[in-house]
Specification:
The complex is a heterodimer. Chain A is α+β, with helices and mostly antiparallel strands. Chain A has helices at 12-23, 29-36, 40-52, 75-98; strands at 24-28, 56-63, 66-73. The two termini of chain A are 17 Å apart. Chain B has one domain. Chain B is 80% helix and 1% strand. The radius of gyration of chain B is 20 Å and the shape is elongated. Classes of the chains: A alpha+beta, B mainly alpha. The A-B interface holds A 1-2, 5, 10-12, 15-16, 19-20, 23-28, 30-32, 35, 84-85, 88, 91-92, 95 and B 3-12, 14-15, 17-19, 21-22, 83-89, 91. Strand 1 (24-28) of chain A pairs antiparallel with strand 1 (86-87) of chain B. Chain B: Keywords: Membrane, Transmembrane, Transmembrane helix. Chain B: The chain crosses the membrane at residues 33-54, 60-80, 92-113, 119-136, 141-161. Chain A: This is ArsR family transcriptional regulator. Chain A: Residues 13-92 form the Winged helix DNA-binding domain.
Chain lengths: 99, 186
């Protein structure tokens, strides 16, 4: 039924990540971990998928000798999110007509 | 690996949750607004007390002491904040208030140089910041409070200096401290 929706975004954790990244200049891994309430391993896995699709940019650096991962949404990611939201709107509009 | 497939309603719910979380960024800043509002009000009332011989210390002491406390606490809170990601909302608000603080600083300098009261300019700057914050949060209370500061700034022009101090303190409490204390949910 929801085949038109981008499968990469149509998953709870990845959608949450992308929604968060749209509202921030950049996000740190630990903040994403807290906001998405998922496990470290799952978050890494989902970020890897988004990175492979070039939806996000990941920068690994150090702060006070601790590793710091900074994630930023890419232009491709922004466009994909816009299309995804437009498609959701279309589906909801159909639902409204049906009710 | 099986993944949960979202329906549009669930997707919207997730996006909505994140938007609400961004709005909660405001709550982090609320304590800064309350702190600075109270400190500027305290400095104004203290100077009024000094000018009326209730307190016997140099008139400028409150304007060093209270902002000094504010600066130390702001730096401490800023450094101890666990949230490190910077939202666009916070980025804009921080930049706006930073610019307004420069404007306030310049206004104070110009006012002292020309030996005129700085409070109308101070109230205008704080009013602009409060109103813009209100528009961003879509919160009518803060937009209204910004207008209160504007009216206060104009009313200041018709008052003697000592009463301007009281008006400035009152505006800070009514237009800054109180709305931030009562706005638990925006």
């Amino acid at each position: 039924m929801f085949n038109d929706l981008d499968p990469l975004l149509n998953s709870p954790v990845r959608l949450a990540i992308m929604s968060i990244l749209l509202t921030v200049k950049h996000a740190h891994f630990n903040d994403l971990l807290k906001e998405t309430q998922t496990t470290q391993g799952n978050l890494s896995h989902q970020l890897k998928k988004l990175h492979e699709a070039e939806y996000v940019q990941i920068e690994k650096t150090f702060k006070n000798n601790y590793p710091l991962t900074i994630i930023t949404i890419s232009e491709t990611g922004k466009k994909a999110f816009e299309v995804y939201v437009e498609n959701i709107k279309k589906y909801l509009h159909l639902n409204e007509n049906n009710t | 690996m099986n993944e949960t497939i979202l329906n549009p309603n669930e997707s919207l719910a997730i996006i909505q949750k994140v938007v609400n979380s961004t709005r909660q960024d405001y709550h982090i800043q609320r304590k800064f607004y309350i702190l600075w509002g109270m400190l500027i009000a305290a400095a104004s009332f203290s100077q009024y007390a000094i000018l009326n011989h209730i307190l016997s210390i140099p008139w400028f002491y409150p304007w060093i002491f209270f902002p000094g406390i504010g600066l130390i606490l702001s730096i401490f809170w800023g450094l101890s904040s666990k949230k490190t990601s910077l939202s666009y909302y916070n980025h804009f608000v921080l930049t706006m208030w930073f610019t307004l603080y420069i404007a306030i600083g310049l206004s104070l300098f110009i006012s002292l140089f020309n030996q005129i009261s700085p409070f109308p300019y101070l109230l205008v700057c704080v009013g602009i910041g409060t109103s813009i914050s209100g528009f961003l949060m879509k919160n009518r209370l803060f937009i209204l409070c910004g207008l209160i500061f504007g009216i206060g700034a104009i009313y200041c022009l018709y008052l003697p200096f000592q009463q301007q101090l009281l008006l400035n303190g009152a505006c800070m409490i009514i237009g800054n401290v109180m709305p931030n204390l009562i706005s638990h949910h925006v």
